[in-house]
Design goal:
By secondary structure, the chain is of the alpha/beta class. The chain is 55% helix and 8% strand. The protein contains twelve helices and five strands. The chain has a five-stranded mixed beta sheet with strand order 1-2-3-5-4. A hairpin with a 4-residue loop joins strand 1 and strand 2. The longest helix is centred in the N-terminal third of the chain and has 24 residues. The protein is globular, with a radius of gyration of 21 Å. The N and C termini lie far apart (82 Å).
Length: 276
């Protein structure tokens, strides 16, 4: 009887270990897997690109040169080379990814790229270089913030910095700065800290593309901070939140006003058309 129970326990342990290993190697935990199977590794000067077997990709140098421009804007260096993953087809991407988004960045320095993003770039629907710069902004900040820092860094600010630094407003599905201001002036505005919360869904936005408007709104907030107070102060704010999770305290220390006052000033700025 004791031997039977022991065998059952061992069997359950082996099954569980195999189940977990599968999800790391081939499932949705793949972005955190310590072992990479089924990919060829391409070591470049500034990045490492992994190509899944039978996948095609030719933009190695284009992607690799983006690293330096991302570091220059953020005044930060990648702690380790970012690792980018290209998949052979949509099904393989979905199996290996926790999301169905075109791209997904992780605090461990990895960036997964969907096959449909590659196809959309080839058709001129999106710019792979712009989108990858956007995602590399996330990778760089999260890499400095630490593992699982996706939960701690202000989500609106991550997106605002990424869109602003990649010059993404006015491209693909993103409204331009001028268009975004016009939409805000019409009464459409998401309070930044409502982003990715239940409150976000309760905010009505009369816009064509909800998510890209929100991202452009956040980029306009970044732009306003840079225009009004200078980029040097903005970088102090960005980096201060890498070290601290107390957003409001960091904001007051850098800018000398409360964040709510800043939002009020920005909305008044838009209403008065001072941006024109």
């Amino acid at each position: 009887m004791k031997n039977t129970k022991k065998l059952i326990v061992i069997g359950l342990f082996v099954f569980l270990a195999g189940f977990i290993a599968y999800f790391f190697l081939f499932g949705r935990l793949f972005p955190y897997s310590p072992v990479i199977l089924g990919f060829s590794k391409h070591e470049l000067n500034n990045s490492t690109i992994y190509i899944q077997n039978r996948a095609e990709f030719y933009e190695y140098e284009t992607i690799d040169t983006l690293i330096l421009s991302v570091e220059k804007f953020h005044d930060l260096k990648f702690k380790q080379k970012p690792k980018l993953f290209i998949f052979r087809d949509s099904l393989a991407y979905i199996h290996h990814s926790p999301t169905k988004a075109r791209f997904c960045a992780f605090s461990n320095g990895r960036l997964i790229i969907s096959p449909w993003a590659i196809r959309e770039n080839a058709k001129g629907k999106i710019s792979l270089a712009i989108y990858v710069r956007h995602e590399l902004s996330h990778v760089l900040i999260l890499q400095h913030k630490g593992l699982f820092s996706e939960l701690n860094y202000p989500k609106w600010l991550l997106e605002g910095i990424a869109v602003y630094s990649a010059n993404q407003m006015g491209t693909s599905f993103y409204p331009s700065k001028e268009e975004t201001y016009q939409i805000i002036a019409q009464g459409n505005f998401l309070p930044p800290f409502d982003f990715k919360t239940r409150r976000e869904n309760k905010t009505h936005l009369d816009v064509k593309y909800r998510i890209t408007f929100m991202y452009s709104e956040f980029a306009c907030l970044v732009d306003y901070l840079v225009l009004k107070y200078g980029k040097a102060k903005f970088l102090l704010y960005m980096k201060g939140l890498i070290k601290s999770n107390d957003h409001d305290k960091v904001f007051r220390q850098i800018y000398g006003i409360d964040f709510d006052k800043f939002i009020s000033d920005f909305r008044q700025f838009v209403r008065k058309n001072e941006h024109v």
